[in-house]
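hey can u check if this looks right to u? its 179 residues, i copy pasted from the old doc so theres a chance i mangled smth
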Amino acid sequence: DKFVREVAIWGLTNQTLLAKLAVNDSSPIVRAAAAKAPLDPSLLQKIALEDKVVNVRIAAVTSLTNQRLLARIAVEDDNSYVRFVAFRRIEDVSALVSAAHDSGIGLSNMCYSVIFNSEESCVTQLVSLLNLSDDKSVAVEFLNCGNQQLHDAAVSWALQRGYSVLPGSGSSSVSWHNR
């Protein structure tokens, strides 16, 4: 039974067996539980980048510490929540700017994920990210998302770069949900 195997993982210390379960088990529940165990960083990277199941990737991301890898996942992952979880683990927002530049994708998708999840503890990181970035689309999202701190940061960012900010209803692909 997959739930019995999941509980059994909590007591495992055998790295070889944990690695095998994290990568090869047929149950995503078991793979996710194994990915939360202390594993070799290169194996966690493989799981975070390659597993097809979102919850397994999230479990691996929550165990990662490599800032460049977390930034890459925050920018490039195809799932909004995986991007959000990776963003929350970032300590160095300059790594996000580099990852966005390297990938050619930009920061918009990652910012969308964070704004959609509307976690106040992420606002300072988002403001820092904006200030390091030259991505006008991020500033536009911040202006129109409904969070006053992000709006104010976007106005300041725009004025420092010679843009005009005019009052109006604006448009945004995502809104901050005040909880």
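The mean pLDDT is 85.
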